[in-house]
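From the shared-data thread, chain only:
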Amino acid sequence: MTDAPAPAPELLDEGVVEEAPQDQLAFDVDDFPGGRTSAIEAVLMVVDEPVTELALASALEIPVPDVEAALAELEEGYAAQQRGFTLRHVGGGWRIYSRPDFAPVVGKFILDGQQARLTQASLETLAVIAYRQPVSRSRVAAVRGVNVDGVIRTLLSRGLIEERGSDEESTATLYGTTPHFLERLGLQSLDDLPALAPYLPEVDVLDEIAESGRS
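Structure, as tokens:
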């Protein structure tokens, strides 16, 4: 007969995670070199997407306020030491990124060794969706002047855009950007996008262009 699994930690008031008895843990974060702060740093080095304070607290069995203090310490420490990376709060969570100052170096390394991940057509289509969302496929095509079916499929498969319901009048599927899009651009919200929207046609103009293209 096998032993029953240990119960999951319970969330208490004010975002404090109840710590499990030490005999239920495989480790105690305070025993590691550097303690809790270094343990959190180690986790941040391997995450594929921004991680919340609560997720870190649950994983390490420590209170959320301790996580917040450690994150602040890491963020300030990286800035003071002028490291090549920085800790940023993006898309509702925390993740380590290369510092913007080193963008030329990082960009050259990537472009020298790899093909750009998105084509120019994909980037242009993504920009239209980002600034005019939720927007239909025909409206995006009206701005770009070409068929965008293949590009839309690519952006969907990469998790950069998603379906956002359908248009009430035409029943056409509407598209918008995803949290992954914000993460990849290092943005907290769509409000942080550069002011490009004024240079794009309004929705009613897009409809007129789309209709003229069908005639």
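Confidence is low (pLDDT under 50) at residues 1-24, 197-210.
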